[in-house]
């Protein structure tokens, strides 16, 4: 019963998220990330300690704080995007631009197989 209630609550959240504009949800993700950054001091300390190990004195403390806060914002936005993936995918052609697709088409046309090496930042 507990899982069923959690499932129904998740469905309710997804429904309400689907009603909100994407730009508003982006702002909500940033706001939620900021809230979590300050609300979870232990996680914030871990993030800052990792940044200290990675960058040492090459970055100021303010820069490390900015990076850590941006990581929390990115995670919050990724969580929101998880719930609205279908909505984002539906109008992907309007929101995303693919550059160099002609090279991919030429490679497929050779019918020899291809290897794609790609990267991404965030969920998309």
Whole-number total of structural domains = 1
Question: Total number of helical segments?
Answer: 7
β content, as a range?
under 5%
Helicity level, as a percent range? Answer: over 70%
Are there runs of 5+ residues with pLDDT below 50, and where?
none
| Rg result | 20 Å
Q: What's the average pLDDT? A: 89
Total beta strands: 0
| Shape label | flat
Q: Classify the secondary structure makeup into a structural class.
A: mainly alpha
Major β-sheet profile: none
Distance between the termini: 35 Å
Helix-strand topology string = HHHHHHH
Model description:
It is built from seven helices and no strands. The protein has one domain. The chain is mainly α. It is flat, with a radius of gyration of 20 Å.
Topology:
Blueprint: H1 2-19, H2 22-39, H3 41-55, H4 61-83, H5 85-90, H6 92-95, H7 101-109
What's this, in brief?
The protein is an all-alpha fold and 124 residues long. Helix content is 75%, strand content 0%. The radius of gyration is 20 Å and the shape is flat.
């Amino acid at each position: 019963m507990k899982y069923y209630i959690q499932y129904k609550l998740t469905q309710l959240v997804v429904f309400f998220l689907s009603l909100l504009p994407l730009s508003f949800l982006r702002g909500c993700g940033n706001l939620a990330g900021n809230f979590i950054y300050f609300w979870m001091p232990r996680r914030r300390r871990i993030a800052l300690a990792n940044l200290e190990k990675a960058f040492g004195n090459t970055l100021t403390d303010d820069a490390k704080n900015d990076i850590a806060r941006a990581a929390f914002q990115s995670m919050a936005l990724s969580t929101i995007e998880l719930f609205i993936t279908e909505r984002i995918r539906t109008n992907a052609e309007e929101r995303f631009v693919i550059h160099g697709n002609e090279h991919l088409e030429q490679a497929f046309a050779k019918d020899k197989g291809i290897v794609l090496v790609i990267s991404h930042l965030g969920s998309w």
